[in-house]
Amino acid sequence: MDISVVKSGVAPGGPDYDFEVKLLICWMLAKITKPMTVEHMIEALVSEQFVNYFEFTGAVTDLIVEGQLVEVEKDQLFRNLQPNPSFFSPTAPYAARRTGYYTLSSENKKHVLLLEHTLPLSLREKVYASATAVLLKANRESGNTATVRRNGDAWAVDISVNDMGSDLLRLSMYAPTPEIADFMKENFLNDPAFFYKGIIALLSGDPDQLKSIEPTPDENYYR
Length: 223
Prior knowledge:
Elements: H1 18-32, H2 38-46, H3 53-65, E1 69-72, H4 94-97, E2 101-104, H5 106-115, H6 121-141, E3 144-151, E4 154-163, E5 166-175, H7 178-190, H8 192-203
Antiparallel strand pairs: 1-2, 3-4, 4-5
Helix pairs in contact: 1-3, 1-5, 1-6, 2-6
């Protein structure tokens, strides 16, 4: 018999049973079609309050141990992406320490999609949108970094654009407040390619190029 899950920290409409938590994790991986780390899954599901952290950790651990989630090699989409060292601490639960990328076998995917109707449509739509946003953010940050540091009475935003292990651009900018510095950092990470093309247009002495530069379409990050 299925056991009711802990509902603390879960928004209305979340799974009611352990089986549904596992199904939601597997469904997300089946629909998103891209490998995800445990950290990605937590950001997509727990941070958005679709499932409880403790229920998620237990469910994903069972799925890994049972072989329903298959660990795969990191591909080019996620090159150079490093896990958060504080999150993957030695005291964290087993599943939370894993830094590998997981997906479903084609056979498991078929079974999961046959059962998807047991999950509310509104929940599936929200989870899919959340997972897509998490992977898009991860891909945009892969090979591109932005950090904020205190420098006297100001804050410095250090950014770098990297491709295939080589730095294409390194730049430090200053902001009067940490809020503005964080805003600059997030704007860069939202579309590093757009920022880089703008810098090149200015430095090449042809600012008219800026008029033709368009933000990078999200789908370009999944090719």
